[in-house]
Write a structure and sequence with these properties.
- The complex is a heterodimer of chains A (about 70) and B (about 200).
- With about 70 residues, chain A is mostly helical.
- Chain A contains 2 helices and no strands.
- Helices cover about 60% and strands about 0% of the residues of chain B.
- The longest helix of chain B has 29 residues.
- Chain B is elongated.
- Classes of the chains: A mainly alpha (about 70), B mainly alpha (about 200).
- At the A-B interface, helix 1 and helix 2 of A face helix 1, helix 2 and helix 7 of B.
């Protein structure tokens, strides 16, 4: 694997960790559904997913820019 | 009760993200793989989160959700008191409101941002429950608005033609006379304490 592709994969993994954590947090809240866990799920779990998605897009965008595809 | 469909969907989502975490290196190398990454790491988690939050908002309107805080249990019990005057009991026992969402039906405003306001108030409740402490006597944040009653009773024949309502009808619509000035008992907490409950036959 080229170093460039390895770098992209590393960034994608970082995004996957955040998205996975966000989903896992929401999953945990769903097992014990209370007002507090719902708020935690909505204020921490969902934003983690969004941050993960944004990091994924940023990684793809940077990779395309570096390749001159934009 | 556990939200099974939400749990299954989120579990599948976590599994897919975990799979993509380990397969990122291989998938990033070709077009189809990149599309799979796009769907699995962006579209799917965002959709699942939106669905989960939507489910949560729906659940947070249910009677069970409101009564999940122990402070509200006496108010929950007041739905069952043996009374023909207490508003909560009358509405609940005669099925004048959906029993699944009885608290929300009467305690949310029906204006444009009524739902948002109710949810923000819910945040205040959670803050009080966990941090600030629950007041000794639970009271509304503001006087109960007639518009909440009129949302359903507005054009009801029994309401409009009621002898007690006719003389004050315009004042009730204008909000200058509160419905509660006559219908004084919303939750009959005295009967809750006395254990006087209605038993359905």
């Amino acid at each position: 694997m080229s170093s460039e592709r390895a770098e992209v994969a590393r960034k994608i993994r970082r995004a996957a960790v955040l998205a996975g954590l966000g989903l896992a947090m929401q999953l945990g809240a769903a097992f014990h559904w209370t007002p507090a866990t719902f708020i935690l799920s909505a204020t921490i779990g969902a934003p983690l997913v969004l941050i993960g998605g944004a990091l994924f897009l940023a990684a793809v965008w940077r990779n395309m820019r570096d390749k001159g595809a934009l | 009760m556990l939200p099974l469909s939400v749990i299954i969907a989120l579990t599948v989502g976590v599994a897919i993200v975990a799979f993509l975490f380990f397969g990122a290196g291989a998938l990033a190398g070709h077009t189809v793989g990149r599309v799979v990454l796009l769907v699995g790491l962006l579209a799917l988690p965002v959709l699942l989160s939106a669905g989960n939050i939507s489910y949560g908002f729906h659940q947070s309107s249910t009677t069970a959700f409101c009564l999940s805080c122990h402070e509200m249990r006496p108010h929950g019990k007041s739905l069952f008191v043996d009374s023909h005057q207490a508003l909560a009991a009358v509405h609940y026992q005669n099925r004048l409101v959906d029993r699944e969402t009885v608290c929300y039906s009467c305690h949310k405003d029906y204006a444009m941002f009524g739902d948002v306001k109710a949810k923000l108030n819910g945040l205040r409740h959670v803050w009080a429950h966990y941090v600030a402490g629950v007041p000794q006597k639970i009271e509304l944040y503001q006087p109960y608005p007639n518009s909440n009653c009129l949302h359903c009773h507005d054009d009801m024949r029994r309401f409009v033609e009621g002898p007690a309502h006719k003389p004050v009808l315009s004042a009730l619509y204008a909000g200058t006379t509160s419905c509660l000035s006559c219908h004084r008992v919303a939750h009959d907490m005295a009967k809750v304490e006395a254990g006087e409950f209605w038993q359905a036959q």
